Amino acid sequence: MSGSIPFYQKRHRHYDRGYRSKETESKVSQYQFSSRYTAGSAASTTSRSRGLELSSHSGLEESRLSHTIPKRAKPTYLAVDKENQIIGYVVPIFRSSQEFAAGFSDTDEARVRDTSAYMARRDMFTSGLEMQRSEQISRREAMRESAERISLNKRIHEHEEHFKRMNEDSLMHTPEFVIKPRSHTVWEKQCVRLHCTVSGWPDPRVVWYKNNVAIDPVANPGKYNLESKYNVHSLEINRCDFDDTAQYRVSAMNSKGELSAFASVVVKRFKGEIDESLPAPRHGPVSEYGVTFKTHIVDKFGVSFGREGETMSLGCTVIIYPTLHRYQPEVQWYRDDVLLSPSKWNHMHWSGDRATLTLTHLNKEDEGLYTLRVTTKSGYETYSAYIFVRDADAEVEGAPGAPLDVRCLDANKDYIIVTWKQPAVDGGNSILGYFVDRCEVGTNHWIQCNDTPVKFARFPVTGLVEGRSYAFRVRAVNKSGMSHPSRVSEPVAAMDPADRARIRGTSAPWTGQIIVTEEEPAEGIVPGRPGELQVTEATKNYVVLSWKPPGEKGLEGVMYYVEKCVSGTDNWQRVNTEIPVKSPRFALFDLSEGNSYCFRVRCCNSAGVGEPSDPTEATTVGDKLDIPSAPGKVVPINNTDTSVVVSWEASCDAKELIGYYIETSLQGSSVWEPCNNKPVKGTRFICHGLMTGEKYVFRVRAMNAAGLSQFSPESEPVEVKAAIASPAPPYGITVLECVHDSMVLAWKQPTFIGGADITGYFVDYREVIDGVPGKWHEANVKAVSERAYRVSDLLENKKYQFQVRAANMAGVGIPSRPSDTFLCEEWTIAVPGPPHDLQIREVRSDSLVLLWKPPVYQGRDPVNGFYIDIKEANAPVEAWRGVNTKATEKTFIKIKNVQEGETFVFRVRAQNKAGVGKTSEETEPVLALTKPGTKEIVVDVNDDGVISLNFECCDLTPDSKFVWSKNYEEIADDSRVDTETKGKMSKAVFKSPGEEDVGIYSCFVTHTDGASSSYTLSEEELKRLLQISHDHKFPIIPLKSDLAVEMLEKGRVRFWLQAEKISANGKVDYVFNNNVVSQGEKYKMNFDKNTGVIEMTMESLTPADEGTYTFQMQDGKATNQSSLVLIGDVFKQLQKESEFQRKEWFRKQGPHFIEYLGYEVTPECCVVLKCKVGNMKKETSALWYKDGHEIKADEHLGFTEGVLKLEIAQRDSPADTADVPRRLKISKKDSGVYEVVLKDDRGKDTSTLNLTDQGFKDLMNEVFNFIANSSTPLKITSTDEGIRLYTFVNYYNDLLQVTWHYKDSAIAFSDRIKSGVVGEQLWLQITEPTEKDTGKYAIEFNDGKGGLRRTVELSGQAFDDAFAEFQRLKAAATAERNRARVAGGLPDVVTIQEGKALNLTCNISGNPLPEITWLKNDREITSDEHCILKFESGRFASFTITGVNTSDSGKYSILVKNKYGTESADFTVSVFIPEEAGGKKK
Asked: In the 8-state DSSP scheme, what is residue 329?
């Protein structure tokens, strides 16, 4: 090696420079100043050389600035171990080579040599002056050389400027952690050191925090040691204990910003096999700032069940006391003891008093034990509950559940190994395999990676593009179909680990050493043999090889060829023939399953291919990993009323075990359900969501990547019920009375009684002398059942503490916390002591019941009343207020009108004549809210008249009991009330109800969440119940209907009633006028016991049957009767009706009328007479008569479907009414009496219809009603005479009466206002209308009833429009009437012989008199001697030619014109010569 390395390059930036003297530090600082110039001048030429780039900056400067080395050069100077873990820094030593020396001048090399030699001799200098002079000379040379370079080469200057801009160390920037602190897990009593390296300019200020509280070493001398040297900052914690388990934060801050890094310290102690990942909360206050926080987690989330794809929120209310404004506790969420971070799957929120974790899209990976941890400076509190995630409904019935926990096990540029966990649910059919899908990051296109399903839960994905990132998912398939895809894996890049580390640019942690290596590559050297070649993974689909690079250093980029051969042969084949691999790891595919192979690896570089490595042992292609064996014996143990603890024996010799799946089934059922959808690693699991009281069996199977094992043997059945445990400690110990040698204590029942009734309590006491407690002594050997006990044999004026233990059938629980210290001295106060044993029952949304026991110490006088106080649970002491203004003598009270949803506490005070005594201990907070499923006591009276109170409870446990009380004192005397319980129902039965039983009855159910209810039996309520009881003891047969009579056919009479309920043993007596009648010819009886109908029929009624009829019933001890009185007019009317019905029956034996003759007006306004007949036959004749005259049968007489019809009037046929309005033929001549006679050999029947006078009027009114209803709405139109209002009817009859109204008054018609009928139009004409004619008009049709009125409003715009139209039509009519006209008299053609005279005359009309113009061949002609034109008397126009000639032939026209119009008439004159005419004839 030429030259020596400066000492500062051999030192690490973390090195402590405290050993240096002030003089040496001064020299070093001067050297640093000079080396900056040196580095600056050489930067442009050395930017391509990583080695010189490092050497151009001093190590001391590097300790202060963090970004001198370009990012691409960082991995080059890191030392790594076998697992590629960074263990230190590497400072390269460069030899001369063209690659690294390019761009150096001789001056550069000389300066480097001089500087290196100077630094090597530096420690030998003894004269400070000589050293300073030498440094000044070197500095001047460096400056001169730099200036010359800038002036000679502009490019170098620009490069230097660029370097200065890009070098962050030359600029101010925010702090950055070059090395972050690492988390540690240590044993108790050990020391731990957290350290970090921070860069930034200006130098950052570093502060350490513990659970967000700044650490002050002064406040804890000897506990913490803080150091900051060379930008290396450390925190040392001495003799760790449990209180040191926390999250530590280091914060670096300067003028550019602030940055923090975190590390956790977990302190453990030896506890056998128990590993507490979450440390227990520390006890005792923390007094950093004189505030001790108390944290309570309430309103907790419980064990929850979700389904894949759903959203679930977990939340707890956190109460921190005292409440400090803006105080922010540390809130953390854990799943299976792993800290959760915010992500797209997990959203965390802290509102100031409630912590919420939202799982946005549930997957089975989310299943586990969730823990909320709230940390304050005084400690922390945690709460945990298990969350279960079930599979989503399969798209295809029978398809398996989705796989879970998809991860990328190994990532290279050639392949990525994907691993997953098998689902617990296979859909009822074994899983055939799995499909792996990949998706390139940034796209949504999923590609299936394998054509056939793989059974092994690990698969190498190939065909990737190097450098690109991919995400993966897995789907399971069985013969029924495909599962849903799993949750997408985290993205991973397809590149070699070395490339990934170089891109990541990880900084090395401080290890306390610096490793110096040679970086210069050796040219022309073929690499040696790789070492330690081994098969790390082998399945039937692929084999993974790994090896170590050759031991030679500095070789040019080494790559590898992999070769294989079939075992037993020497035929080696190269696997990667085209491209050698860069990383010492390779996966082989397409190997024949069952064959054995050997493998070896060769190194290669530009110099050639090296020797092969030692071959591996023969490896048979196949799954080396076996499916685990079935787990052993499964033992279920009771846990709670909805859960069971299941434990099992682990699978024997299981390799790479992932976990276990547990399934359960109801005893006797073949349907198995998974208890967990995420495998558990232990051999114990709590199965939740079971039904209380049901019996279940369990089985377990193990799982690894090869698959699922067989099921374990089924467990013994276990009934789901809460396990019995010893009770929790009692609490709230108070003194009720004190005399000179004894004290009466009271305490509260434990919050957890262990699932069994508390059998008693044990009290201990100890004497306290000068604040020092003594030894505990037993106060009672035999357990006491009450929560109050007198401790005797105490010493007067001595101080004592007490503790209480509760016992049940499971044993004696742990003792309570020691009570306050009490002085044993006799009480002499006049007022009573405190009441005790406060209990709350019957909690509802608006009321509750408070019970208590009177004070033991009565005071000077007996207690004569109690006062009850109430306040909100969180309210201050000043909020106590009284419930009752007058003292109550009872030891219970029902408190009403409480606010729903509010939490309250209560206390009681006793009084005597001396005054009000001490207050009791306040109750536990109670929420005023009716719990779902709450039942009330129901009173019932059975069929025997027995009165009972019934109470049902749906939340029973196996140990629950119903306790009945009267006036809230348990009923011990059964002389008046019996209690019995069956299942969920209990009843209190009154033996002989009387005034002694008046009171408040209540029922309380033990081992429930306060299920209770009460019923107040007042004197009035007792009377009501006794009346109901009497009715039940002496019952009557209820009747649906009383005795009634009805008429049957043939005039028979039926007496009947219906009983509501009567048994088959019921009997009936039929009584007439107090005499029992029986079945016979006159009376027919019937009793239908199914329907309860009792009836008696008689063929007819005679005067002797007048009287009272009674039915008397008896059914066991129940009786009833019903009577019907038939006398006087009532009987006569019934007898008459019977005779009529009898005659009717005989009438109907022959042809008869079912419906008598009537009429019907059809929608076409035709009148049809019809009747309905029955019992007809072919020989039956039907004759029609009018006014006694028979009507001959014609086409209008018909008989169809038992109906006879005769149409007496119909509308005119269309052929007859072409020019005449359609009229109905019915008229007054159709009135008369119509009759129909039916007769045959069985008899005859007659029906008559009178259509005269009123009958005819009624008929016509119905016709008019049809006409009126067919009328259209009244409309407005205009004529040349005025305005016309009109309506149309479908048909019109001359007898129809119509009235026109104007402003609700009938219109008096005149010449100006007229009405009429045109066809089917009814109109009202208003001639020459004016504004006075505006208003409401109506037409009213009279049908003899209410009539029908149609109205229209002729005003406003409607009148204006109609009047305008009238004016227009009137003007048009005037013009048409007065315009010039040629009335007639002119022929079309005139043929005349030459020489003859022609005279034509026509009539002319028009006003004013029209002007007349004559034309010949469209040219005007005038009167002359030959053609004489005249217009005489203003009417006649004449055209005369005295002697016609051929020139007179042509077309002539007369044109008349006035201001209203013009009209013309044409004629043609043809003149012929006689000779020509004769010749033509010939």
From this structure: -
Q: Note the pLDDT of residue 122.
A: 46
Tell me how far apart the alpha carbons of residues 474 and 477 are, in angstroms, rounded to a whole number. 10
From CA 932, how far away is CA 40, in angstroms rounded? Answer: 81
Give tens-digit pLDDT for 368-426: 999 999 998 888 899 999 999 999 998 889 999 999 999 998 888 778 889 999 999 98
* pLDDT above 70: residue 489: yes
pLDDT digits (tens, 9 = 90+) for 490-504: 999 888 776 666 665
User: Which DSSP symbol is given to 1036?
Assistant: B
Query: What is the rounded CA–CA span in Å between residue 780 and residue 667?
Result: 47
8 Å CB contact between 416 and 470: yes
Contact predicate 584/572, CB 8 Å:
no
Whether residue 69 has pLDDT greater than 50: no
Q: Which residues is 447 bridged to in the sheet?
A: 438
What strand order describes the sheet that includes 947-952? Answer: 938-941, 947-952, 985-990, 977-982
For residues 656-685, give the mean pLDDT: 92
Q: At what angle do helices 128-152 and 106-121 cross, to 10 degrees?
A: 160
Residue type for position 776: W
70 Cβ contact partners less than 8 Å away, ≥ 6 residues apart? 50, 53
pLDDT at 1195: 39
Check whether 1292 has a pLDDT greater than 90: no
Q: Given this model, what pLDDT does residue 74 score?
A: 37
Q: Which long-range contacts (CB under 8 A, 24 or more apart) does 577-583 make?
A: 580/604, 581/412, 581/414, 582/413, 582/496, 582/498, 582/499, 582/557, 583/412, 583/413, 583/496, 583/497, 583/498
Q: Does an H or E element contain 1360, and which? A: helix 1356-1378
Place of tokens 């942690």: 509
Q: State how far the Cα of 303 lies from the Cα of 455, in Å rounded to an integer.
A: 34
Average pLDDT, rounded, for the chain: 82
If we measure between CA atoms, which residue out of 1363, 1352, 1353 comes closest to residue 1279? 1363
C-alpha span between 120 and 127 (Å, rounded): 16
CA dist., res. 361 & res. 487, Å (int): 10
Structure confidence at residue 83 (pLDDT): 46
> pTM for the full model?
0.44
Residue 405, Ramachandran bin (φ over 0: left; ψ between -120 and 50: alpha; else beta): left
pLDDT band for position 130 (cuts 50, 70, 90): low
Q: How far apart are the first and last CA of the chain?
A: 160
Q: Residue 902: pLDDT band by 50, 70, 90 thresholds?
A: very high
Concatenating the DSSP letter of every residue in 1398-1422 gives EEEEEEEE-SSPPEEEEEETTEEE-
Q: How far apart are CA 616 and CA 144, in angstroms?
A: 64
Q: Residues 438, 466: contact at Cβ < 8 Å? A: no
- Three-state SS for 1248-1295 is EEEECCHHHHHHHHHHHHHHHHHCCCCEEEECCCEEEEEEECCCECCC
CB 1442 within 8 A of CB 1426: yes
Q: Hey, is 1195 helix, strand or coil?
A: coil
Identify the three-state secondary structure at position 880.
coil
Q: What is the rounded distance in angstroms from the CA atom of residue 851 to the CA atom of residue 891?
A: 6
Percentage helix, strand, coil for the chain under 3-state DSSP, each rounded to 5: 15, 40, 40
Residues with Cβ within 8 Å of 568's Cβ and at least 6 positions away in sequence, in order, are 596, 618
Point out the least confidently predicted range of 233-237, 505-509, 620-624: 505-509
The gap from C-alpha 1404 to its chain's centroid, in whole angstroms, comes to 97
User: What are the structure tokens assigned to 1190, written together?
Assistant: 């028979």
Structure tokens given for 107: 């001056």
Q: Token match 């640093």: residue?
A: 32
Gap between the Cα atoms of 1236 and 1234, Å rounded: 7
**H helix intervals, 325-430:** none
* Sequence-ordered list of residues with C-beta below 8 angstroms from that of 740, at least 6 positions apart, any chain: 796, 824, 825, 826
- Position 1086, amino acid: N
**For residue 1263, what are the β-bridge partners?**
none
Pick from 588, 583, 611: nearest CA to 599: 588
